[in-house]
Amino acid sequence: MKLDFQKDGYLFLTDDTSKLDTDTIFLKTAQNSHYYEQLEPKPETLTVDELISFWGLDKMKVVGVTGTNGKTTVTAAIYSFLLDLNEKPALQGTRGLFAQEKRIEEKSMTTPSILETLYNMKQTMDMGCNYFIMEVSSHAIDQNRIEGLTFALKVHTNVTSDHLDYHGTVEEYRRVKSLFFADESPKLLNKDDIKNITYNPIGAQSYGVDEPATFKVQAFSLLNGITAGIKHLQAEATFHSPMVGLFNLFNLMAAIGSVQMLTGRSIEEICEVVEYFAGVSGRMEVVSRDPLVIVDFAHTDDGMYQVLDSMKDRDISVVFGAGGNRDKEKRPRMGAVAGRYANKIYVTSDNPRDEVPEMILEDILLGLHGKDHVTATPDRRLAIKMALDALEENEVLLILGKGDEDYQEIKGVKYPFDDREVVRELLKERA
């Protein structure tokens, strides 16, 4: 990445050694410092702290959200609530960069390089934003892609099991996540999941549904959306949301608590704007209400557990698969989770990538051995059609794994495919 940078004349700034020339300043980071040592002659350098100071980025309140699930929804909810409360937030994450209710950049990594993050902060600060809400992945924590950032708030959604192809073990994954909460920064922790991390108690507050917490759910209903009564210290309030599912109650609580800690506003005032946030595209997205069809990004056994458990008050039909060239150990576990909750199960392709789709299906089916009402086909459109055709009045159809992806990756080629559009087309044909 190479950016315009004004310092004693017109120069460029980059963190990529391959883009260096005599008019370039090299941003020396934790990720690239060993490359710098190999350079001859040595170019002019800048540290992350110097760039933050030069651009005045320490004026922005940075909020980092990490967890196995919920990062995208929680960051989007914080952004939405702050906007509706007439604050000026920016949002960076898997869906892109947003400011002033507009998308500035398209989809990217969950947490990009520190130079890209700082540039995004600079862009949005110049647009008048004073909050920078960002998703923080375990890879970014481990690779120190967040070096130099001072967080006004760090948020924990949940930590279970993911990215074991990178981290190796669940214990190492949890250790890396816990590093994010080791300092004395203000932090908001999920009390119902707190056993899965270690953290510095200084500056820590919590939210919870079952466990006692700073921000506590007192009662809730999941009929026709989410309605909940909550308590913060001595204050009580009620909110309603069009979103569905128990885990979205946790996500909303994380966002409500975050906004209160950031702004000092009352929970009554914050709860008034909750209903205007309808959720994130592809995350528990209601594609049809009659019949009830929901599309979600859940692509791990824990993600599936969160989604299916949150809908357990209904009869469930589920369509799902598993990505190729990824953690194979989770596949039978995903099958087992589906077998635990769903009455009808359709195992199909996700993004098979370079693997043989039928082999991926076989791995999943190991976790469904002996289960009834299981159908397997590598044709995802056919699986969705069969599930819709067999859907009964009291059932919900959950289509998991791809969320708002609009392609299916097979042998290096991305073919157009959007679960939501397929559902709409099939329902239109049937009508």
UniProtKB/TrEMBL annotation:
Subcellular localization: Cytoplasm
Xref: SUPFAM superfamilies: MurD-like peptide ligases, catalytic domain, MurD-like peptide ligases, peptide-binding domain
PTM note: Carboxylation is probably crucial for Mg(2+) binding and, consequently, for the gamma-phosphate positioning of ATP.
List of residues binding ATP: G67, T68, N69, G70, K71, T72, T73
EC number: 6.3.2.13
Secretion signal span: none
Keyword entries, A-Z: ATP-binding, Cell cycle, Cell division, Cell shape, Cell wall biogenesis/degradation, Cytoplasm, Ligase, Magnesium, Nucleotide-binding, Peptidoglycan synthesis
Family as reported in the entry's similarity comment: Belongs to the MurCDEF family. MurE subfamily.
Name of the protein this chain belongs to: UDP-N-acetylmuramoyl-L-alanyl-D-glutamate--2,6-diaminopimelate ligase
